[in-house]
């Protein structure tokens, strides 16, 4: 009976151990299944992240080969340079209300020259100063945007190198996306600022004082841009004692017969009598001949439009250095 009890207990314990072992195997299977599921989710997350990084890389490459290609960046640089070298003028427009009777006859008889003579010079100078500030702000903004575009272009190229070297983590991915968006925005802002018209000036007061005796024309002011004057390097030539200079305005279809130009001639190796500055002349044509020069000598020539009372901003002057021929 004891043996039977022992066998019973042994069989019972064995069954319990078997159940425990089976239960343990079930638990491990559950753990393995959970681990396999976790690994699958992790792998899926990694694949999704890599797809995102790859997509950002493709967008960066597309930007570098389109809007930030070497040719596109060169065009932006030339556009900026053109704006920086242009001259800006204050333009006055008449915004007359429709008068009646004698008022109509009085205002219609006022020529543009008369209107300019009636303008209060102190108020005109204030308008010119305000316009000068607006031009400087515009050029400064364009310059800063261009610098950010160049910096963004270099940063994006560096990020592409990191990606190709396998050095991209989550922080780098966020940086790539942020830099891509910023650079796109800088390019958009540059293009928009470059193409928008110069805004009309907000005059604080009327330029012509109203005395009350006669109606005065109401005036508004805006900015006008003129493309810089440059020497024609192909048409200009020298002899032993003279230089023929030719200049023009890029893109100008016809020459303005009323435009005057200021020509400066300077010897780069002057003697005691020359003092460096030889001549300054005014031309109403697009070419001139400078005579009485010394042979085998370097001279510097500059050309610009003659300054007018409504000139707001115009810092750049084209310069050319030529050497007269030896006799």
Task: Describe this structure as you would to a colleague.
The chain is an alpha+beta fold and 327 residues long. The protein folds into 3 domains: 1-65; 71-224; 228-323, Immunoglobulins (Immunoglobulin-like, Sandwich). The chain is 50% helix and 19% strand. It is built from 6 helices and 11 strands. The protein has helices at 2-65, 70-85, 102-108, 112-118, 121-164, 170-195; strands at residues 87-94, 219-226, 229-231, 237-238, 243-249, 261-267, 277-283, 287-290, 298-305, 311-313, 318-323. Strands 3, 4, 5 and 8 form a 4-stranded antiparallel β-sheet that branches. Helix 1 (2-65) packs parallel to helix 6 (170-195) and helix 2 (70-85) runs antiparallel to helix 5 (121-164). The longest helix has 64 residues, at 2-65. The radius of gyration is 39 Å and the shape is flat. The N and C termini lie far apart (144 Å). Mean pLDDT is 79; it is low at 1-38 and 97-108. It comes from Lates calcarifer. Pfam families: DUF5581, DUF5581_N. This is Fibronectin type III domain-containing protein 11.
Ends distance: 144 Å
Beta-strand residue percentage: 15-25%
Q: Helix tally?
A: 6
Radius of gyration over all CA atoms, rounded: 39 Å
Unreliable runs, pLDDT <50, ≥5 residues? 1-38, 97-108
Task: Characterize the largest beta sheet: strand count, sense, and whether it forms a barrel.
Answer: 4 strands, antiparallel
Global shape: flat
The arrangement of helices and strands along the chain is: HHEHHHHEEEEEEEEEE
What share of the residues lie within helices? 40-55%
Question: Helix/strand/pairing class, anyone?
Answer: alpha+beta
Name the average pLDDT.
79
What is the number of independent domains? 3
Number of strands: 11
Domain DUF5581: 53-195, 226-324
Protein name: Fibronectin type III domain-containing protein 11
Pfam family, one: DUF5581_N
InterPro entries: DUF5581_C (IPR048317), DUF5581_N (IPR049231), FNDC11 (IPR039581)
């Amino acid at each position: 009976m004891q043996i039977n009890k022992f066998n019973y207990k042994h069989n019972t314990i064995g069954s319990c151990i078997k159940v425990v072992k089976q239960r343990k195997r079930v638990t491990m299977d559950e753990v393995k299944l959970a681990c396999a599921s976790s690994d699958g989710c992790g792998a899926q997350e990694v694949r999704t992240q890599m797809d995102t990084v790859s997509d950002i890389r493709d967008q960066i490459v597309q930007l570098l080969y389109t809007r930030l290609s070497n040719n596109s960046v060169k065009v932006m640089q030339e556009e900026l340079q053109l704006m920086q070298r242009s001259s800006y003028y204050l333009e006055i427009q008449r915004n007359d209300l429709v008068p009646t009777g004698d008022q109509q006859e009085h205002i219609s008889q006022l020529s543009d020259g008369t209107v300019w003579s009636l303008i209060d010079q102190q108020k005109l100078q204030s308008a010119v100063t305000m316009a000068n500030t607006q031009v400087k702000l515009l050029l400064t903004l364009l310059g800063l945007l261009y610098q950010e575009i160049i910096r963004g272009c270099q940063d994006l190229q560096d990020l592409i190198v990191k990606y190709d070297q396998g050095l991209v983590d989550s922080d780098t991915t966020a940086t790539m996306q942020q830099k891509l968006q910023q650079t796109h925005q800088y390019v958009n802002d540059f293009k928009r600022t470059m193409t928008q018209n110069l805004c009309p000036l907000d005059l604080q007061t009327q330029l012509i004082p109203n005395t009350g005796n006669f109606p005065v024309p109401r005036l508004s002011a805006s900015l006008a841009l003129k493309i810089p004057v440059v020497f024609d390097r192909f048409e200009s030539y020298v002899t032993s004692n003279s230089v023929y200079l030719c200049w023009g305005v890029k893109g100008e279809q016809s020459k303005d017969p009323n435009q005057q130009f200021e020509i400066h001639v300077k010897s780069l190796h002057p003697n005691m009598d020359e003092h460096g500055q030889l001549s300054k002349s005014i031309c109403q044509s697009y070419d001139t001949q400078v005579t009485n020069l010394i042979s085998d000598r370097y001279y510097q020539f500059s050309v610009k439009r003659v300054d007018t009372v409504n000139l707001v901003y115009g810092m750049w002057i084209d310069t050319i250095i030529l050497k007269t021929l030896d006799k």
